[in-house]
Amino acid sequence: MNASPVNVAVGILMQANGDVLLGQRPEGKPYAGYWEFPGGKVEEGEDILAALEREFMEELGIQILTAEPWCGVEYIYPHAHVRLHFYISREWIGEPQSLEGQAFAWQGAVAVEPLLPATIPLITCLDGLRFSSNLS
């Protein structure tokens, strides 16, 4: 296995009511059927935010207008060592579409399962962010 982790840009689309978009991994990919936040691999020399914008256009057909870096997580799966860079986006153009045949669902209290293992610990942190009384 490659010693250095693969950088992955991950986006959390958050509606005004706090609902977030989760997608289901398609057949033929590792962890097919598991739910995750959309995103994808950062290409060589590509900026992480640029990768996120590209992935959202390719996977969901939407254009991200703003995205704030949220957190980073390293996780070692049996098939890959990944460094996940999470961004939260509250502004985008277009309605998400399933351009790669994946299922997706807006979730308030996250009820879909199974969740991708690296995603599980973030749901609790995210709930605090989504449902807190916006103290900024």
What composes the largest sheet? Answer: 4 strands, mixed
User: Helix amount, in percent?
Assistant: 10-25%
**Unreliable runs:** none
- Architecture, according to CATH? Alpha-Beta Complex
Count up the helices: 2
Number of domains: 1
Mind telling me the C-alpha Rg? 14 Å
- CATH hierarchy, class: Alpha Beta
Q: What global shape is seen?
A: globular
Would you count the extended β strands for me?
Answer: 7
N→C terminal distance: 42 Å
Instruction: Report the β-strand fraction as a percent range.
Output: 35-45%
- Helix and strand run: EEEEHEEEH
Structural class: alpha+beta
Major sheet strand order? 4-1-6-5
What is the CATH fold-level name? Nucleoside Triphosphate Pyrophosphohydrolase
Word description of this protein:
The protein has helices spanning 48-60, 120-130, and strands spanning 6-13, 20-24, 35-36, 39-41, 63-76, 81-93, 104-107. It is of the alpha+beta class. The chain has a single domain, classed as Nucleoside Triphosphate Pyrophosphohydrolase. The strands form two sheets. Strands 4-1-6-5 form a four-stranded mixed β-sheet, covered by helices on one side. The model has no long low-confidence stretch (mean pLDDT 91). Keywords: DNA damage, DNA repair, DNA replication, Hydrolase, Magnesium, Metal-binding, Mutator protein. It holds the Pfam family NUDIX. Residues 5-129 form the Nudix hydrolase domain. It catalyses: 8-oxo-dGTP + H2O = 8-oxo-dGMP + diphosphate + H(+); 8-oxo-GTP + H2O = 8-oxo-GMP + diphosphate + H(+).
